[in-house]
Design brief:
It is globular and about 45 Å long. The chain is built from 10 helices and 14 strands. By secondary structure, it is of the alpha/beta class. The relative contact order is 0.17. The two termini are 14 Å apart. Helix content is 42%, strand content 21%.
Length: 267
């Protein structure tokens, strides 16, 4: 472990993210309902919620959620890079709560769907996000994308974080050895967040926490709360929160995108 990772282990802090709604959920929601869910998440230590624009009837409903999160001190918003252009064109850049966006770190085949993402295209996407005040999450589904993350770090430094997605069909295996390999390869990246598809392995989650990783989960990523079927994303967050608390780790509270930028800068 390098000096930064050792400092993290001494400080014992973690950013917890929640992906609120399943891709199999075809419902659309009012912003007030999503706000209620978001505030419930915050009460169990969640700093960032991930939602897609297709969960709202209109872009105005999404922007209303962004406003409600600001005035109610809710968690920050993470949206997909594909949603960013629509959101920005409709005025999203004026909201401090819209903090980050997930973009592909490299080419991958997941669930049989091939995603082509060259390093040139990744550079274009990260430039567009940064120019609009959005913090990029570089999403990694396989080891081939790790080299791209290093190249992007050499160019952009601590202006982004990495989201590692394990256990997805076609992607990397969810294992302790793979977690450690990624943490070692990307030891210069200030925040590496792990998402485990349909996770039922608490020992893997405990290990991620212990070695300085951050966590994301929710119904978009997993049907399970431990080894039980989850009823709601809040159930998963409460379960993760217990694991985090038992480890003595502090959840990082983020107030706006500037506080996330500062965390990346000084981690």
């Amino acid at each position: 472990l390098n000096i930064l990772r050792e400092e993290h282990l001494m400080n014992k802090d973690l950013i917890l993210q929640c992906s609120l709604f399943s891709h199999f959920d075809n419902n659309m929601y009012f912003p007030e309902y999503v706000l209620e869910k978001a505030l419930m998440c915050k009460r169990v230590g969640v700093s960032v919620i991930h939602v897609h624009l297709n969960k709202f009837k209109t872009i105005d409903d999404f922007l209303k959620l962004a406003h409600l999160l600001e005035v109610n001190d809710g968690p920050l918003l993470n949206i997909s890079a594909n949603d960013v252009i629509t959101a920005i064109e409709c005025g999203a850049s004026g909201y401090k709560s819209i903090a980050c966006a997930a973009m592909q770190g490299g080419s991958a085949t997941i669930f049989g769907n091939t995603i082509n993402q060259t390093i040139q295209k990744a550079n274009e996407e990260i430039e567009r996000l940064l120019q609009n005040g959005i913090i990029p999450e570089i999403s990694v589904f396989n080891f081939e994308s790790i080299g791209n993350c290093i190249e992007l770090y050499n160019k952009y430094g601590k202006q982004f974080y990495v989201g590692v997605y394990m256990g997805y069909p076609g992607g990397m295996v969810a294992s302790i050895s793979n977690v450690e390999s990624i943490m070692d390869s990307l030891n210069m990246i200030p925040v590496i967040s792990f998402t485990i598809y349909n996770n039922q392995d608490d020992e893997l989650i405990k290990h991620i926490v212990e070695i300085g990783g951050h966590l994301r989960s929710g119904l978009e990523d997993s049907l399970y709360c431990g080894n039980c079927v989850a009823i709601d994303s809040i159930d998963i967050m409460m379960h993760y929160n217990r694991i985090i608390a038992e480890s003595g780790t502090r959840r990082v509270e983020l107030f706006d995108k500037e506080s996330l930028k500062d965390y990346l800068r000084w981690s």
